[in-house]
Specification:
This protein is an alpha/beta fold. It contains 21 helices and 22 strands.
Length: 610
Amino acid sequence: MSRVHITDLTLRDGHQSLIATRLRIEDMLPICHQMDEIGFYSLEAWGGATFDACVRFLKEDPWERLHRLKTALPKTPLQMLLRGQNLLGYRHYADDVVRSFVQRSVEGGISIIRIFDAMNDTRNLQVAIEATREAGGHAQGTICYTTSPVHTSRQFVGMARAMVEMGAQSIAIKDMAGLLTPSATRELVSELVDAVSVPIHLHAHATSGLSELCHWQAIEAGCRHIETAISAFAGGTSHPPTESMVAALAGTRYDTGLDLEALQEIDAYFREVRKKYARFESDYTGVDTRVQVNQVPGGMISNLANQLRDQDALDKFDAVLREIPTVREDLGYPPLVTPTSQIVGTQAVMNVLAGERYKVITNEVKHYLMGHYGDTPGPVNPIIRGKAIGNSEVLECRPADRLPPEMDTLRSEIGELAGTEEDVLTYALFPEVGRQFLEQRRDGMLVPEPLNPPQATTAAGCPAPVEFNVTFHGESYHIKVTGSGHRREDSRPLYVTVDGLPEEVLLETLEEIDVVPGPAAGAEGQKRPRKPAARRATRPGDVTTSMPGTVIDVLVSEGQEVQAGTPVLVLEAMKMESEIPAPVSGVVKAVNVTKGQAANPDDALIEIEA
């Protein structure tokens, strides 16, 4: 068989790569009928970052999105991306959660599940592969392609054989960073075709500008399944254009049989749609050959830029790119794909911003070094491991073997907020964000982030400012008002971006802040106590953070004795958690922050008296 089959990625990886996964279901459904008539091998339309984006930003139920897409695309198999034992989240889940999620995904309309592990540890793929086949889906085992002193084509071939033995019905080469070269592609595909009897699929991002050549070499070497995106969402950090590859193969023995003019009509639709999402366009979505040196995937580049912009440190972007290979080497050369790309990238940012390597080590790096994500591809720097985890146990078993069943506990935790098993799984993947989503749905308060800033005017009829800079304690923040929500009991939500990061702010009038109305307050109302703002850190016992974040947990209370180096706060910054230690031994004099509160650099978050 010579015909080449195409999986189109526009509905998932195309917009994930180029407009931060913000494409809404309302802009997908009108074109689904035409896409369904093309004759694609499959359409990747779910998984990856889409689940998170739906719940966090778009306020769409991701399960409902899947059901609507399946209804609108009855002829074409739907495909999703699954992070093995991580599912679509950022930690390993117990086997019962994995099996339930896979079963519900197949029942909801997914035909093909592409299953990968960020460490290329095949032990973390076993349960997902088994569950997919048991549910009646097609299980596709995945090689996360990368280059390093410890990665070889022989190793990748061995991995493919292991996945086929587990039950994988096809093998995908996932080149998430665009690292493949034409010659490396031909060599790897040729060896895989000779080694396994199942079809080989190529998924290669266009970041380095080489992907079209790599696809051609893969086809020549025996690959018959390639992946592309409609040209409106192709190129740069996305994938080769569907129309271009169809045109290139037309009239050859590899002819796809797809209608170029019909594809062009679909492209015209998406070109207009993309204009609506201009605010989510990134400056880092063009061809970038630096990836061949630093191995940073395109999506990771744009995320790093946003993270540094949030810290008012975009001038350190090149320094972070130079730091990433060092952190990756220290951690044993993991492939840079979710979640290891976030783990390595965030640690590199912290190293650069702190001016000292590993002065602050994220909890995720600690868990990684304890084996909670699986075996590292290469040896870990023993000095860094000792500094991060000391003599803590390093797991040698499959990480999920240590996890007890979770589904019953999750059902109990979320309670009546979950109307279906799918709701329980939403909460399982993203506990805080998922609970908030389910609460907002219950209360009829699901409001997606706006596509455009509001057009506001002052009382005098002049245009009101919706974009400005604010300085707190010497730190400047760029604020852009993007919308407002319905008034609540004593406040109104205002949607803004802070240095590009979407936030929700609750506004209260001075009267509402000072007075609580109601019978208990009396005729004049009752004064509401206010927590004083944290002062600037100036004393040796002041607990501070080197970057803005959110307090996830406060581990001490006033009057408690602590030892220097003991964790006193857990802070989330850039989707990673870090424990903030006590700088001195002594007694906690004051706790100036609470769980969920923003923490700013140089504020005295906790005061310790030596």
